[in-house]
Every structure is written in C-alpha cells, then in structure tokens.
C-alpha cells in the first residue's frame, strides 16, 4: 500500500496540476456515461472508465472540487487526463458531478424535499423544483454532499457484484473541498459495520468496518473547512489512518 500510495500521489499531483495540454495519455480512453441515484432522490451523472483488459485491480473515485462561488464539475482541467492515465495503468475509475453541479441537477421532488436539509438549506426548496443548482445551496449544505460519495460507492458495489470491478480496494482522490468531503466519508466508513445477525431478535453481530475496502486517500490542496465550518481533520485522521491503517497523502 505504501508504494501504491506514493505512485498515485505523484501521478495525481503532476496530472492534475499540468492539465490536458501537457499530460496526454498514450492511448484513447474508453469511457461510459452513467447515472445513479443518491438515497434522497437526486440523479448523479458521471463517467466510468472501465478496465478494458478485464483485470480486477483497484477502483479509483475522483472527486471534483464543488465550489459554491465558482461552481465545478468533472470537466475541470487535468481530471480526465488523470482518469485516462489510471485506466491505462489497470484501474477502474469513476468520476461524477456532485449534486447541483455540472449535469447532476435532476431530482425527484417528492423523495428529495421530504428531507429537512434539502428543504431548508436550499433556497427555493419550498417550491419543490425538479432541478437544483449549487447557486442556491447555503454553505451549511455542503457537508451533505458526502451522500453523493456514498452513492458512487454503492454504484461501484453493484458493478462489483456483476464482476465488472473490484471494490474491495478503493482509492479516493479529491481536491479542495472535495478532499475534506472524501476524508469525511472515509471516516464514516471506518465507523459503519454490517449487522450479520439476520434474526428478528437478538443483539447485533457487527462485522468488520466498511473501511476494510479502502486502500488510500489522496488529497490535493485539502480544504480546512467544510461549508464554512472547520473540517474535523484531527478526528478523521485518527479514525481512518491510526485506528484503521488506511494511508492518506496530502499534496
């Protein structure tokens, strides 16, 4: 894992920094446009870079920076180059637009606005529109974008069940606010365990934490805040790296 983390960190730093004009992959990437739903009824649009060789190497989730002032999406310079280079190196890669950003704006009003944070922290939520935009998000809404990362992992788990990828080894790469969101999601996975007791009665029989599937986190210019509030980096690092030995690189 140490060698894996070092190599990916270097690739992430170089490719995301120099952009498409200076980081051309050796061959054309194979991509597939996809969509999947978050638990609260928002449809997320993304791009999947499958492994054309059929190998079951690690899966990489790329998180674009969701900026409430400037916007953001998966078309940010350098990200498609990084995805193509990782695919050429044997990884399955998933990029997606966070809710309200890029192409991820469609919601099911009945499912979406029954959740208080969607109703109260998005301007105009009382009208229950079918489209949402980051321009209407209050800063306190940003932490809820972590649910989109959970939805992306759930989509990949379904692909894993179809033997299209291997989600027992997941790498997350994020920048700015998405770095903080990605790390927060990893900390949540370190505390989430499956109940193996299928009986209706009896005490829970908790299995291993879901962080067992995390191989690494790589954060480019990680934000110290999430939605204007301090990101709990000290607690995140304790939960993920110290207690569960998942390596992280900060660039």
**Strand element count:** 11
Which series of helices and strands comes N to C?
A: HEEEHEHHHEHEEEEEHE
Adjacency order of strands in the biggest sheet: 1-2-4-3-5-8-11
Helices, by number, come to 7
What is the overall pLDDT average? 88
Shape call: globular
Unreliable runs, pLDDT <50, ≥5 residues? 18-23
Helical content class: 25-40%
For the termini, the CA-CA separation is 17 Å
Let me know the largest β-sheet: 7 strands, mixed
The secondary-structure class comes to alpha/beta
| β-strand amount | 15-25%
Write up what this structure looks like.
With 251 residues, the protein is α/β, with parallel strands linked by helices. It is built from 7 helices and 11 strands. The model is unreliable at 18-23 (pLDDT under 50).
What layout of secondary structure does this protein have?
Elements: H1 2-18, E1 32-37, E2 43-49, E3 59-63, H2 79-88, E4 92-96, H3 109-112, H4 116-120, H5 146-161, E5 170-175, H6 177-191, E6 193-195, E7 206-209, E8 214-220, E9 225-226, E10 229-230, H7 233-242, E11 248-250
Parallel strand pairs: 3-4, 3-5, 5-8, 8-11
Antiparallel strand pairs: 1-2, 2-4, 6-7, 9-10
Helix pairs in contact: 5-6, 6-7
